Amino acid sequence: MFSTLLSAENDPMGTAISDFYAKGRAGRLRVFSPQFDEDEIPVKTLFRTFSEMPLLEQTALTLAEGKILDVGAGSGCHTLALKEMGKEATAIDISPLSVEVMQSEGIQAYQVDLFDSHFVGQFDTILMLMNGSGIIGKLKNMGAFFERMRHLLAPQGCILMDSSDLRYLFEDEDGSMLIDLAGDYYGELEFTMQYKQVKGKSFDWLYVDFDTLSYYASQFGFKAEKIREGEHYDYLARLTWNGQ
Questions:
Q1: 190 - beta bridge partners?
Q2: Disulfide: which of 14, 45, 60, 147 matches 160 by Cβ 3.0-4.6 Å?
Q3: Helix, strand, coil share (%) of the chain residues, nearest 5
Q4: What is the DSSP letter of 43?
């Protein structure tokens, strides 16, 4: 149902991150989806500093406090920024090569699947950035996601998550929506990545509009608050458990 740990042989993003960390440059990190044309992630942006980050990410890092968990940390740029701010953070990622790079940077990083019940802890802030909702995969996984969050959040803790509303991709010029309401949710996408000769397996990725996120949060005992909107249909949300 959810993403599982990768091996180095099927870890294109981790290979790209490792290349850039070692050489200061990297090739093309290609992204494929049956829903869209081929795209590319500039690897350099994965190593951005706090001043280079979009305002939503800067806001999330500023609000993060206490014992922090950085989920899907990648190169560890957010964790490093937190460290420079004097904050305590642990990073997890399913990519073994990304974790190696983070450990080389002096980050407390582990190769962990967020949904692995063997990973335990009590965190005051759980960060899910760079469209952090993507890790949930599909709307049908919301229940399992919020159940997992209840086990990982400390009392009075919160999740800081960013995402985007993709409805703008389906809007006609008159503002009407060209969406099949009988089909899958329009923010449920499938991706595959490739870096040089390293090809990854396909994975589900969820972009969720705030109203839908807020609805599901309320169904599972959480409150959703929109902290800030970005420049292009993106937003930062704070999720807190009402049972705390």
A1: 204
A2: 60
A3: 35, 30, 35
A4: G
